[in-house]
Design goal:
This protein is mostly helical. The protein has eleven helices and two strands, in the order ααααααααααββα. Helices cover 58% and strands 4% of the residues. The protein has a two-stranded antiparallel ribbon with strand order 1-2. Helix 1 runs parallel beside helix 7 and helix 3 runs parallel beside helix 6.
């Protein structure tokens, strides 16, 4: 009798495993000063929270995420046997694209509102911005309320509205997790496919983490369309930093403001 793990269980815990494995890859890569968007010294001096506290905060969010995922799979479970029918690649692609749009839309408006509402920013969202210099395993360092509202509920809506199965969700949320971690990695590595295929990337999100960019570049984790449509897009150029590495610099018209 073989041991079988359900799609629902994998859909719950695989993204968490992927988070720590993928962010762990970036720990030794952080020593590559010539590819960093900020110096290691800046990371150590400018961030307002210890890495131990970040790890604890991420684990707390992932516990909440897992509980909600289990509840969601339980409520939406199908015992009719239809789960054995696998959708075509075209249907899967459509579901992934819809899920990406739903997640982006939810996160853009919630994220932007948390910046414009002074109470929510001061007491909730500012926790994430304690990381002035982002790094990979800090991607999900949020206040628990923000983690629930932005990531967990946003993910649940993407799952429900796209119509994807628990099996498809394993791949979608693992992919979304990798993308989110990559956006916070603080590196600009040659050959990074996310930089090639997505304008929303580590440099784009780094702009948002700087003081001059906190009212811009709210979009996450996939596209930049809402920023462009609603006038919160801050264009930037990637320049060589004097001490080595790169720096994402806002366009001149934003510097002048």
């Amino acid at each position: 009798m073989g041991f079988e793990v359900s799609d629902e269980l994998l859909g719950t815990f695989m993204p968490i495993l992927v988070y720590w494995v993928y962010s762990g890859i970036y720990i030794p890569l952080g020593s590559l000063e010539n590819y960093r968007l900020h110096s290691k010294k800046d990371e150590d001096e400018k961030n307002l929270v210890s890495k131990g506290t970040v790890v604890k905060g991420v684990i707390l969010q992932q516990v909440v995420q897992a509980v909600v995922a289990i509840l969601l799979f339980t409520v939406t479970g199908d015992d009719s046997g239809a789960a054995g029918v696998q959708p075509s690649l075209i249907i899967l692609a459509r579901q992934f694209f819809i899920a990406m749009l739903v997640l982006d839309t939810w996160q853009y408006f919630m994220h932007r509102y948390m910046h414009h509402n002074k109470f929510l920013y001061r007491h909730i969202h500012s926790q994430h911005h304690r990381l002035v210099v982002p790094y990979a395993f800090g991607a999900l360092y949020n206040h628990p309320v923000e983690g629930l509202l932005l990531d967990t509920i946003g993910g649940a809506l993407a799952f429900l509205l796209s119509g994807m199965s628990p099996r498809a969700s394993i791949f979608f949320f693992s992919f979304a997790t990798v993308k989110t971690v990559d956006d916070h990695c603080g590196l600009w590595l040659p050959g990074n496919l996310f930089h090639m295929f997505f304008r929303n990337n580590s440099a784009y999100h780094d702009i948002h983490h700087q003081l001059y960019g906190t009212k811009y570049n709210f979009s996450q984790p996939f596209f930049v369309m809402w920023d462009k449509i609603l006038g919160t897009h801050m264009p930037y150029s990637l320049e060589k930093r004097a001490g080595g590495g790169f720096e994402a610099r806002p366009a001149k018209e934003f510097k002048d403001n």
